[in-house]
Amino acid sequence: MIETLLLVLVCIIIGGLLSSLAVHLMPVGGAPAAMATATGIATGCVMLMTGAAVTGLFTASTVASFWVTKPNVILVALSGAVGSMLMIGFTMFVGNLIYIFGAGIVPCSGRVAVDPITKDSQTEYKTPRTDGHGVPTASFVSGILGGFSGGFGGALIYVVLVSDSYAHFSVATAGIVAMGIFIANAIIAAYNIGGTIEGFHDPKFKARIRTGLTCSLIVSVLCGVIIVIAMLTGTLAGGVM
Amino acid sequence: MGEEEVKQEEKEIKEKPKEKFKLSFDYFNESRLGIFALIIGIIVAIFPGLPAFIKGIGMMIVLLWGADSVRKTARYGLGTGVPSIGVLAMGFGIVGGITGIAVASLSFGTLVVGGVEIAFGVLAGVALLALLGFVSGNLANGDKFINMKIPGLERGMTELGIAGTLAVLIETSIISGTYAITNVLPNAINNGVIAVIFIISAFAMLQPLNTCLGADERRGRTLLMSIEIGGIASIILGLVTTLTLSAVQGVPLIVLGAVVWVVFYRAYMKACLEEAYAVKGTGLIKTLGG
After folding, report:
1. Domain residues for B277?
2. Closest Cα to residue A44, out of B196, B74, B68?
3. Looking at chain A from residue 197 to 226, which residues have their Cβ under 8 Å from any Cβ of chain B?
4. What is the pLDDT of residues A179-223, one digit of tens each?
5. Of A173, A190, A211, the CB nearest to B80
6. How many domains are contained in chain B?
7. Buried-most residue among A46, A130, B72, B143 (CB within 10 A)?
8. Domain of A71?
9. pLDDT tens digits for range B161-188
C-alpha cells in the first residue's frame, strides 16, 4: 500500500516536472506574434500547452482502454506524448503556412544570430524593430520536443491515476485531475517565462529553467500529496473514485 | 408590440430601486466581499441538503469573489493573459474539489445532526487548496524564485484556490444533491458534467476582466458581468439538475438563472452606455438603438 502511494506521488511529481519543462520549450509568441512581430505561435503559453496536453490525454485514454486491467504505463504515456506532439506540430505547421503565404514573412529567430540546427543565418531576414517572425526550424523542433515532454507528463499522471494497480480512479476523475495538475504547473511555468519564449535556443530558457523546475517541484509535491489524500479517503469510502 | 413594451416597462420598474447598489459595490470592497463570499460559500458548501435554488445563489457569490480575485491578480499584467488565471483557479478547484468530496464521503467527514447532513470533510479540500494557492503565490512573487513583484499576488492566488474549490464543491452538490462518492461519480463526474463545471466557472471568473480590461476599467461594472455569467451557469446547471435529480430542484434554478441573466445583462449594458464617451450602434444589438 505504502509503495503504491509513493509510486503515485513520484509519478505525479515527474509528470508535473515534465509539463513545466514542456511549457519552457514551446515557441510562444503571445500578442505580438498575432502581428508577426515576434517568433512563435500567437497565443499564451498556457493555452498552447493545454491544447496539446488535452489531445495527449485523449490519445492516452484511448490507448489505456485497450487493456481490460492493468494498462502498460510506459506505452500509454508514450501514446499521450505522440498525440501531444501531433497537435503542437499541426498548430505550428498551419501557423507557419499562414505566416508565410498569408502575411508574407520569412520565419526567423529574433534571439539568436544563427539557427542552432540548420546553421542558417537569421539576422538578415529579421525585419528591423521586430523580435523575429513565424516558427523557424529550431523553434519547431523545440516545440515538438515540448509536445513530447508535456504529453508524456500529462499521460503519466493520467495512467497512474486510472490504472487499477495504482490509484484506480474512474476514467473521468483521472482525466480531469491530470488536467488540473497539468494546468497548475503550466501556469507557474508561464509566470516564470513572463511573455514570449522561442524554445531551447532562447537565452531566456537557460536563464530561467532552473527556477521554473524548482517551483514546479514544490507545486507538484503539494498537488501529489492532496491527490494521495483523495486516493486514500476515496478508497476507504467507496472503493472506486 | 404592445405586450413587449409592457414587459420592458416592468423590467425597468423592477430594476430601478436596486440599481444604485448594483452599480457601485462600494460597501463590498475587496476585503469585505472576500469575507462575505467565504462565509456564504462555506455555509452553502457544507450543507448539501439545501435546495438547489439557494446553492445557486451561493455559487454566484463565490464566482463573483473569484472574478474579483482574478481582477486583483491580473490587473498588473502578468505576461500570460487573463484567461490563464481563471483556468488556474479552476485547475486548483478541481484538485481541491475531488479531495474535498473524497474526504466528505468518509464516515467522519459528514455528520448527521437531526436529519441534516453537515459535510465538514469538504473543508479539508478548501484548506489544502488555500495552502497550495498561498505557496504558489509565494513562489511566483518571492525574491528567491520567480520574483514577479506584483502587489498582493500571494493573497490573490490563495483566494483563487479557495474560490475555485468552493465553486466546484457547490456545483457538484447542486447536481448530485450529496457528497457521497457513490452518488457524485455517476451524476457529476463520469458523465462528463465536471468538464462543463470546469469551463463555466472558469468563464465566470476570467471573462469579466478579460472583456472590461483597459484604462477605464471600473470594478463595479466588471463585477456586474460576473453575476451575469453566474446566471448563465445557473441555467446550464439547472438543466443538468433536472436530468440528474428532479424538476423540483432544477426548474427554480433555471428561473433564477434567467432572471439574473436578463437583469444583470441590462444593468451591464446600461453602465457601459452611460460611461462611454460616445456610442455608435451597428444595429446588431437592439439596445444600442441601431
Report:
1. 2-288
2. B74
3. 211-212, 214-215, 218-219, 222-223, 226
4. 888 888 888 888 888 778 888 988 888 888 998 999 899 999 988
5. A190
6. 1
7. A46
8. 2-233
9. 999 999 999 999 999 988 888 888 888 8
